[in-house]
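Teaching note: in complex prediction, the entire set of molecules is handled at once rather than each chain in isolation. The prompt given to students was simply: 'Predict the structure of this complex.' The entities are:
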Amino acid sequence: MKHSIAESDLESNRAADRVPGEPVLVLRDVDKSFGAQHVLDGISLTVGRGKTLAVLGRSGTGKSVLLKLIIGLENMDSGSISIQGQEIEGLALKEMNRLRIKMGFLFQNAALYDSLTVEQNVAFPLERHTKMTASERSMRVEELLSSVGMEQHLKKLPSDISGGMQKRVGLARALALQPEILLLDEPTAGLDPITSREIDDLVLKLQKEHALTSIVVTHDLQSAKTIADSVALLDKGKVVMQGTFQELAESKDDFVREFFKRDS
Amino acid sequence: MEATFTSFGNTINRSLEWFGDLGSFSWKVACAAFARPFELREIVRQFDEIGSKSFPLVALAGAAIGTVLALESRSSLARFGAKSMLPAAIIYSIIHEMGPIVTGLVVAGRVGAGIGAELGSMKVTEQIDAIEASAVNPYKLLAFTRVLACIVVLPLLTLVTDFCGVLGGWVAVTLSDPISFHRFLNKGFSHVSFSDFLAPTFRTCAFGLIIGLVACFQGMRTKGGTEGVGRSATSSVVLSSLFVILADVILVKLILIFFP
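The expected output is the structure of the full assembly:
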């Protein structure tokens, strides 16, 4: 299939150019407050190319804010965020958009455009950032939707499909521009265990196929165990512990043990 | 007493903050206007949403205003022996003031609420964030397109209001004192110059700018779920109507200075 992703930015969104393990996302001492509320306090994290980091923590510990800082939807108070070696602080909108094209974002509630059909939702980034013809775009949309098992629901509106289906469509939209980095905000929140497992399997499959670097924000320990190479646990805006799922599960730290107790 | 002063001070602060935020928002929209892509398809869609769909409402409002004006003016003019001036009084009032302001207020009500609620709903469901995360400028796609459509469509809708107002006025007049439409227009327009028509009609571009900017601004800063969406819709209508009336006062004075 001819992907007329003409812009040079998109040409770099190719698995072939990627060196495994090299740091892609680096956060250093990131602080963020909303008024008097200190949400993130000196967060430092590194994610290597092709690796998946799960960010765990109680509600309101700033996990979703962390993702919004990375994609530039919020501004940090201090610290630095580097994406593929480029600092995002002070970037002009045009430059930030070049980076955003390399990132796919799945929102907590999918955030599908409710006046557009499933097909139009997935086609939206393609229409904006590629020079594909209508038929090429249509083929690409079908390909993306079939990779998430939603090819039968092209013409439906988001309000006509279930929450799990919306997440799948959101995932297809996030992958439309063949991103190198995938940011997933609670991909299994509010879903039943079977649908959650299906979403996890889908994310795993897509990560392997596209060699994606991912950050997954989740409350779901089982999901973190399944899809993440490493896990960071946040509490009161700080990283309490970072390591493999097994290392955290075996930790002697009271908070970490308390957090993992429910799963055991 | 001190509490009253504090409360008054807080209100002033909030108002200044609101105007500052509106200024910053307007600047972002203005900057987005000159950047590619020009979002032609969305602009056309907004012309339809704001223009075509407001057509019946402004036509009805215009006809009603024309009718009422004819009924009210008739007895007043008859009292001063100036009944023959009725067509001129109706046409002059409509094209000079009633048509533009009624169109501005009707569109502020219909479109202001629509934009406020639509963008507010998109904001609270993170759809605007999703647009931005897709490397698309929401100030361009959502705000500029709507503001431009409001600016262009308002004068056109004013023509509709004016026409229906004159028609309504003629119907009301002719029911009591039959007169042909042609003669009614001739008598009416004999006292109206082109400048009486041009400046008032084009001042609605300013109304369109106000309605578009205020409604988009209120919508895109929505907080607090569905309740917040309701608040945004209401405040869009209230504020844009209020500013349309205030702008009308200023613009009427300016028009009188420059087109005496």
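Point out the following to students. The domain at 35-102+183-264 of chain A is CATH 3.40.50.300 (Rossmann fold). The first helix of chain A runs from residue 8 to 11.
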